[in-house]
């Protein structure tokens, strides 16, 4: 009797073996018994004749007679499962809609021949959005079967609206609701759609005959997933284009490290001195705050440019990546920082001083009357945040500025830009985090002020400078009149280091940054892998890494966190395999995160 290996969408890597009535190919959905329940799984190899034993259970039902996915997408799922150390089951679950894992029958996929059959990469970098749009439009108009993707749903919609009606009829805009998405997902397989325009959610649509993938703003952080498995969609789409033998068109206001390294595109926006105002925070007037130890620099040029922009009815953004009134609160008597009872992280002082919120787990308490450590009464905040900035903007400048808004995005959703425009026809000053940059599309501010540019680049990650640079670069260009905007950068070391690239273009930035990363053997030159496991497992994994002579180090903060620097994924997979066995379902599985660029 044939035996079948099937991958269940679950955290373990082990495929499960079942008996089957007939010989089955790979990549088919089957319903299999699992414990007392049953699940929809995918066959991962052609079935083989095997010795019949009593212990092996039978498949309950074969759902697909023919592979339900385009061959390139199925190959991508297997590659993703292997390379990302997550297994085929979890890889499939990550890239496919939940509805796929049901008994719902799917019409046979239309295998439209791909007109290219050869993988190629084109790149298109520059601040002018209309030029990029024009180029992408040719992908929709030509003979390609194209996925045209943008980092945010509203950007996809904006592009879609530029397409003439006749062209829209041949393609589709990827919908937002899960039901509509499932319908569209099915339709994509039918061969009726020539192209799909969408957000990252459309990146793994099963478009029949895929022959072009367009990715705008490929360097944007919005392509990164926020939960396990962590990946940047570009890493997967590059491989998908290769497997599909399709064109890959990468564009944006700046390239990612990998794309810069590969194609060495030329930055044309390399003389930006007129629009940039660098200010030393040391020379800035410091604003004293009630019950705060530190100050916030508000420089004369920042005020001057902001007032000028507001007088002309323009929008102004002041950006600071610190929520609340102060990032931390501490006792002046014993010097202790107040920490979260649940997770031990520092807490920020917020809601204009009524409560403390944990910076990590989100727990919140009323501000204590005295220090929990020594009973001292003098509690003081440090590192002023947005609420303090807002207070300052309103009080000190109230004769100059009307309409000062604070957007902290507590609800994780930005207000609608068009709505704001209606509400404040004369513009406003908005104080908020970097998430405000998305509002540049509708409001295109005349001035943007970075209150503490150094803080943006201070993260512990190897790419924190690149992220800061990309953010400030975005603030210089995003939106209709981006190239007219004044950008004020307050910093302790203005216009030096990574900031110099703002004046002279991302070419300069990447040349320096990549030289440094190559010396330190960091991505994109060498992959970094983070393994998070329970302490006991972490110890065992470390031992095995030692035996294998791998280069690794343990995190200083977290005993369960190990960082590995290696290109030998196959060897690492062998080391990790025992920890991802189905036999260990009773405990927590380790998670592996990959940093490639
Ligand atoms: Zn104290
Ligand atoms: Zn906490």
TrEMBL record:
<dbReference type="Pfam" id="PF17764">
    <property type="entry name" value="PriA_3primeBD"/>
</dbReference>
<dbReference type="GO" id="GO:0005524">
    <property type="term" value="F:ATP binding"/>
</dbReference>
<keyword id="KW-0547">Nucleotide-binding</keyword>
<protein>
    <recommendedName>
        <fullName>Primosomal protein N' 3' DNA-binding domain-containing protein</fullName>
    </recommendedName>
</protein>
<feature type="domain" description="Primosomal protein N' 3' DNA-binding">
    <location>
        <begin position="7"/>
        <end position="97"/>
    </location>
</feature>
<keyword id="KW-0067">ATP-binding</keyword>
<dbReference type="InterPro" id="IPR027417">
    <property type="entry name" value="P-loop_NTPase"/>
</dbReference>
<dbReference type="InterPro" id="IPR041222">
    <property type="entry name" value="PriA_3primeBD"/>
</dbReference>
<dbReference type="GO" id="GO:0006270">
    <property type="term" value="P:DNA replication initiation"/>
</dbReference>
<dbReference type="GO" id="GO:0006310">
    <property type="term" value="P:DNA recombination"/>
</dbReference>
<keyword id="KW-0238">DNA-binding</keyword>
<dbReference type="GO" id="GO:0006302">
    <property type="term" value="P:double-strand break repair"/>
</dbReference>
<dbReference type="GO" id="GO:0043138">
    <property type="term" value="F:3'-5' DNA helicase activity"/>
</dbReference>
<dbReference type="InterPro" id="IPR042115">
    <property type="entry name" value="PriA_3primeBD_sf"/>
</dbReference>
<dbReference type="GO" id="GO:0003677">
    <property type="term" value="F:DNA binding"/>
</dbReference>
């Amino acid at each position: 009797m044939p035996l079948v290996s099937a991958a269940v969408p679950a955290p373990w890597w082990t495929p499960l073996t079942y008996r089957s009535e007939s010989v089955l190919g790979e990549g088919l959905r089957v319903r299999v018994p699992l414990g007392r329940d049953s699940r929809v799984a995918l066959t991962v190899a052609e079935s083989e004749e095997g010795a019949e034993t009593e212990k092996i259970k039978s498949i309950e039902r074969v759902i697909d007679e023919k592979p339900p996915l385009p061959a390139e997408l199925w190959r991508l799922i297997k590659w993703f499962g292997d390379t990302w150390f997550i297994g085929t089951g979890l890889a499939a679950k990550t890239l496919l809609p939940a509805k796929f894992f049901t008994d719902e029958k799917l019409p046979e996929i239309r295998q439209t021949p791909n007109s290219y059959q050869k993988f190629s990469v084109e790149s298109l970098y520059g601040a002018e959005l209309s030029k990029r749009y024009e180029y992408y439009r040719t992908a929709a108009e030509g003979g390609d079967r194209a996925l045209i993707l943008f980092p945010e749903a509203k950007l996809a919609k904006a592009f879609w609206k530029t397409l003439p009606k006749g062209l829209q009829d041949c393609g589709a805009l990827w919908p937002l609701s899960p039901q509509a998405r499932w319908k569209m997902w099915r339709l994509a397989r039918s061969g009726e759609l020539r192209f799909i325009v969408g957000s990252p959610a459309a990146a793994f649509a099963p478009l029949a005959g895929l022959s072009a993938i367009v990715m705008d703003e490929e360097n944007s952080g919005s392509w990164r997933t926020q939960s396990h498995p962590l990946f940047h969609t570009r890493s997967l789409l590059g491989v998908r284009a290769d497997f599909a033998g399709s064109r890959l068109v990468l564009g944006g206001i700046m390239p990612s490290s990998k794309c810069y390294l590969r194609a060495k595109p030329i930055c044309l926006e390399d003389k930006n001195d007129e629009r940039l105002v660098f200010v030393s925070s040391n020379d800035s007037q410091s604003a004293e705050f009630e019950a705060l130890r530190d100050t916030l620099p508000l420089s004369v040029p920042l005020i001057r440019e902001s007032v000028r922009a507001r007088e002309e009815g323009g929008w102004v953004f002041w950006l600071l990546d610190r929520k609340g009134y102060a990032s931390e609160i501490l006792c002046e008597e014993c010097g202790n920082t107040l920490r979260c009872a649940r997770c031990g992280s520092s807490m920020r002082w917020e809601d204009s001083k009524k409560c403390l919120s944990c910076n990590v787990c989100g727990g919140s308490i009323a501000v204590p009357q005295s220090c929990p450590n020594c009973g001292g009464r003098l509690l003081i905040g440090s590192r002023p945040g947005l609420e303090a900035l807002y207070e300052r903007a309103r009080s000190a400048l109230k004769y100059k500025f009307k309409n000062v808004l604070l957007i902290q995005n507590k609800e994780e959703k930005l207000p609608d830009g068009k709505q704001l425009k209606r509400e404040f026809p004369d513009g406003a000053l908005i104080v908020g985090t970097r998430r405000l940059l998305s509002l540049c599309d509708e409001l295109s501010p005349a001035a943007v002020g970075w209150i503490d540019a150094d803080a943006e680049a201070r993260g512990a990650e190897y790419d924190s400078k690149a992220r800061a640079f990309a953010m400030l670069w975005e603030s210089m260009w995003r939106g209709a009149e981006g190239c007219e905007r004044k950008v004020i950068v307050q910093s302790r070391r203005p216009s030096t280091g990574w900031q110099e690239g703002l004046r002279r273009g991302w070419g300069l930035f990447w040349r320096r940054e990549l030289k440094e990363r190559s010396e330190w053997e960091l991505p994109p030159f060498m992959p970094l892998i983070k393994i998070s496991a329970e302490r006991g497992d972490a110890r065992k994994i470390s031992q095995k890494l030692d035996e294998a002579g791998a280069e690794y180090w343990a995190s200083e903060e977290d005993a369960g966190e190990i960082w590995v620097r290696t290109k030998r994924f196959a060897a690492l997979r062998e080391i990790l395999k025992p920890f991802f066995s189905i036999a260990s379902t009773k405990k927590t599985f380790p998670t592996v995160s990959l940093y490639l660029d």
